[in-house]
Amino acid sequence: MKRAARAALALALAGCGRPAALDPAGPQAARIADLWWLSFAVVAAVYAAVLVALALAVARGRRARRESAGDGPPAPRPPDPARTRRIALVIGAASAASAAVLLVLLVASVRTGRAIARAEREHPLVVEVTGRQWWWSVRYADGRASEWFETANEIHLPVGRSIRLALSAGDVIHGFWVPALHGKRDLIPGRANELFLRVERPGTYVGRCAEFCGHQHAKMQILVVAEAPEAFEAWRARQRGPAREPRNEAERRGREVFLSSSCPLCHAIRGTSAGGQAGPDLTHLASRARIAGNWLPNAPGHLAGWVLDSQAVKPGNRMPPNLLPGPDVQALLAYLRSLE
Amino acid sequence: MSGDARAPALPGEEEERARLERALDPGPGLRGWLRSVSHRDVGRRYVATAFVFFALAGAAAAAMRAQLLFADNDWIGPDLYNQLFTMHGTTMMFLFAVPVMEGLAVYLVPLMLGTRNVAFPRLNAFGYYTFALAGIVLWTAFALDVGPDTGWFSYPPLAGPEFSPGKRVDFWAQLVTLTEVAALVAAVEIVATTFRQRAPGMSLDRIPLFVWAMLVTSFMVVFAMPAVMLASTYLALDRLVGTHFFNPVEGGEALLYQHLFWFFGHPEVYIIFVPALGIVSSIVSAFARRPVFGYPAMVLSLIATGFVSFGLWVHHMFATGLPELGESFFTAASLLIALPTGVQIFCWIATLWTGRLVFATPLLYVIGFVATFVLGGLTGVLQASVPIDTQVHDTFFVVAHLHYTLVGGAVFPLLGGIHFWFPKLTGRMASERLGKLGFALVFAGFHLTFFPMHQLGLAGMPRRVYTYAPDSGFEPLNQLAGAGAAVLALGVLVFAGNLLWSARRGRVAGPDPWGAETLEWSAPSPPPRYGFLHPPVVFGRDGLWEREAGSAVVTGLRSEPESGTYEVLLTNLVDARPELRADLPGPSIFPFLTAVSLVGTLVASVFTPWAPVFGGVPIFLSLLGWPVRTPPAPVVLREGEVPDVRPAPARAAP
Amino acid sequence: MSERPAALDVSVLPAHAFGSRGLAWWATVGFIVIEAGMFAMVIASLFYLHGEEAQWPPAPFAPPELLWGTVNTAILLLSAWPNHEMRLAAERLDLAGVRRWILVADAFSVAFLAVRWLELGDLNVRWDSNAYGSVVWVLIGFHTFHLLTDAIESMVLTAMVLGSPGPRRYVDVSENGIYWYFVVVVWIPIYAVVYLLPRWW
């Protein structure tokens, strides 16, 4: 509940104040934001200068027109050679100034790019993200192979540590973009891409798929939860473990419903016989703040609606509607909500 | 100038005029309409048809803006929305922006050069029909719910056989090929016409800036269009016959498509923009009452822009994870291209500064162009930087940038140019009051719609999304943009209404209502099908403003109505000394038939790979008709008319 | 202006010219530049895909058989000779010469189309096997398309010159010759890239 509230707050605040790309929570996004402000100041000054020149030209031209008599278009007149020379010099100077400005921007850009490209290379924590239509498969493949685990859509990161996101695509091209943390990187089938970053400010950050990937591209959101290293380790330890055993009759029945429906065809719950790979891993579903590609809050009503008829929420997504009788739905919900 | 009401007649003019009219008369009715090869007709049709597509694409955009007014809105579902933004982009880029500029060029370049038609009149007509039919096919597919839905750029693997089954993307691919054929045809026309058919005395350094712009554009088309034809052909082959160009499992590469597409895609936006630079020069000189400042710098800037535009394409791929050093090269090139355009802006400002300004609608659009395009160009400079681009790429920031540059940089000059040349095209003046009102609405509506999108992009709103989350905070700015879109639409309606009404009821215009300097203003308004009765001779760069304008014309060009031919003068490439008479063919139905066969073949190839083989037959047969020169349709006498039985003069041996 | 304008009488100028002084040349050369650009990009695509593979052709495919490709290269290069003669005859307005050489050229057309058919059977890969096969087939297929259209154009011109051609036809024959040179010359890098590259890189 607290998680969901925090996530909701993060999303709501995304609308006010600074836009996310200019409200950095880590050094990469901060460097980009710094470059942005420098470049913005420069181009704003250039724009202002052009507008002033245009306004003056229009004013002068207007005055010259009023000074010439008669109706109909005034007769054209050849330009004055002395003036022509002076104007040519001014234009030459303006062009040289423009070239200088562009050179400054080039140098600043290349330096920023280089700094970002070299950062966070020392012992980063590796998180593998695979984009699929229309959710994010996340795998923590650190340390011993027996400790690797999969989750979906919600990425937890320790604050202050170098992170390497290994990006790949399972079907079409997607784009990973969390503006508060870094620029975007495409996930391209057949190519291995990566993003190196670090988060300095704890919090929950929203991201979205940034490369058109089909019907539900719009609702393919990312949630990055950056927390203190101890909290992160605690989360990771819990996520490594298998799914919680049912504690009561309802949850037991719910697990039966899950395993005997079509759910295991696509979804996996470690510790049960469900091992489907086509859809998100549900082992610790209840620990996540949101569901359905981070589109809906992880609350009973939304979860029920999603399971029963996801097509109504996200038309064209890959999960078919599930027609289940009422009591089965209740039991299933109880079980899913127990998977912390 | 001879050929218009001002000049006194030379001997034999009446017979010459009659013979030329007969030679170019395509005949009555629909068949006659389809047979015309006059550049005036083809050019006007290009422009009119392109504006129809503009309206359709605009309607698609209006629907999208409506859907995005509210978070989690459900008026338009993802399937229709994806088709809408694909149709909007594809139509604007391939069916409006390039063809409308081609059409203006086809109409104006021969007149500005003082010749009677483009170099290959039948090829020209073929190009128009190919473009028009291709657009009709695409919109028919959309109406039948098989419109393409993977974006105007249609990336695989999403657009490939596995993730986009069905025929939607195939229609897109064939449309691209067909519109590129039309563009290539027009480009060859402009180059040949400009290099060979200039008026005597119009050396290369006396060509109007608009013609230079179209010449540079034509070269860009020739080198850029093949890349997209190839990309779309590879995609079509992957989908239809099982090739693996973009299938990573079998050695293919998704990025190969992007490289090919953007190698075309970046020059494409300059192919749209450079003609507008030519229009701006035409308007500025006419309404500042002086030639544009710095002719050599202007020409070199156009050429430099054309060249450098081929070195930028990777800046569309900065998020794909390419090597850093390579990307820096493209950053440098993307910054560099701002310089020649900057020089042009400085020269225009200098022209306005030292001119005596007439504040008619065309000039307002030019002022709007500078204020709008420069902002868009500067956001382009921001995006040239890889780190900044990784934040704003594929967001509404880019949507803002591309509209500021394309609408500000191409559409505003275009609208101004339409107002400017309207009297020449129709023989009537458009209403100045409505013109100014239209400008005000379009300008205000445009900025209200697109400026907020910069903020939306930085706040995290990606492109091509059919909705957004209620807690994203995107709603207020989207609603502002929606309001702006309504104002913009109103402005477009006022613009269109003004022109449609004025075409019938506007004040009658003479040949040169603005007192402009290029040669098209010496022809009647509208010009006859044959353009100039006696093509002009030129003595300087400033056309009609030269003291000696109108003092010499070309005579001795033959026309032979019985074989449907008429002659143009070919002059030397560099200094335009008269060299040769070339006879151009008259009206024919075969260009239309070839276009129908070609479009039909490519549409059929969406359904069977044998189509090119079978379709080759009607294409071949219709091509056989192109060299045929037939007599014009018999003259139908109206009551009281006496038939003209004077024989044509005997033709001298070649 | 109340004076009658001076008249520059151009009726004495010739009405036909070969080469860049006429208009047909510009259409032909324009088309050649466009097609050359397309070929260059297909070859660039081949090198792009080649850069991503450890082996070329990728296992288990063998390179195309050398025989028919090399034979056709020889036929194409030899065809430049009747082509050259045909153009010279056209520029001399020598109808008999044009007829003779265009028929020889047509014979070469038939020969290289027939050998091209044999080549296509010996490529050792299908277009739908993998990306290598796709790009090789597109490259050769695109060239074959040009061979075909050139052959058809030549045969149409043959029919015209066997009748009573006007002066314009001689210019068309000469322009067709230029296009023929292009089809021959563009084959050389294609041959190198398809047949030689897999063996010697």
Query: In DSSP terms, counting alpha (H) and pi (I) runs of 4 or more, how many helices of chain C?
Result: 6
For the secondary structure, the number of strands of chain C is 1
Q: What is the H-and-E element order of chain B? A: HHHHHHHHHHHHHHHHEEEEHH
How many β-strands of chain B, per DSSP? 4
Q: Which stretches of chain B of 5+ consecutive residues score pLDDT under 50?
A: 1-6, 645-654
Amino-to-carboxy terminus distance of chain B: 30 Å
Major β-sheet strand ordering of chain B: 2-3-4
CATH architecture of chain C: Up-down Bundle
Biggest beta sheet summary of chain B: 3 strands, antiparallel
Report the major sheet of chain C.
none
Annotated CATH topology of chain C: Four Helix Bundle (Hemerythrin (Met), subunit A)
**How does the helix and strand content of chain C classify structurally?**
mainly alpha
Average predicted confidence as pLDDT of chain C: 93
How confident overall, as mean pLDDT of chain B?
Answer: 93
Percent in helix of chain B: 55-70%
* Strand content bin of chain B: under 5%
**Number of helical elements of chain B:** 18
Task: Please describe the topology of this protein.
The complex is a heterotrimer of chains A (340), B (654) and C (201).
Chain A: H1 2-13, H2 27-67, H3 81-118, E1 125-132, E2 135-140, E3 149-152, E4 154-158, E5 163-169, E6 174-177, E7 185-187, E8 193-197, E9 203-209, E10 221-227, H4 229-240, H5 249-260, E11 290-291, E12 296-297, H6 300-308, H7 310-313, H8 326-338
Parallel strand pairs in A: 1-5, 4-10
Antiparallel strand pairs in A: 1-2, 2-3, 5-8, 6-7, 6-9, 9-10, 11-12
Chain B: H1 13-23, H2 29-35, H3 39-67, H4 78-113, H5 121-143, H6 168-196, H7 209-240, H8 254-288, H9 295-308, H10 324-336, H11 338-353, H12 361-384, H13 386-392, H14 396-426, H15 432-459, H16 475-505, E1 552-555, E2 559-560, E3 565-571, E4 578-585, H17 590-605, H18 611-624
Antiparallel strand pairs in B: 2-3, 3-4
Chain C: E1 6-9, H1 24-51, H2 66-78, H3 80-91, H4 95-121, H5 131-162, H6 167-200
Helix pairs in contact in C: 1-5, 1-6, 2-4, 2-6, 3-4, 3-6, 4-5, 5-6
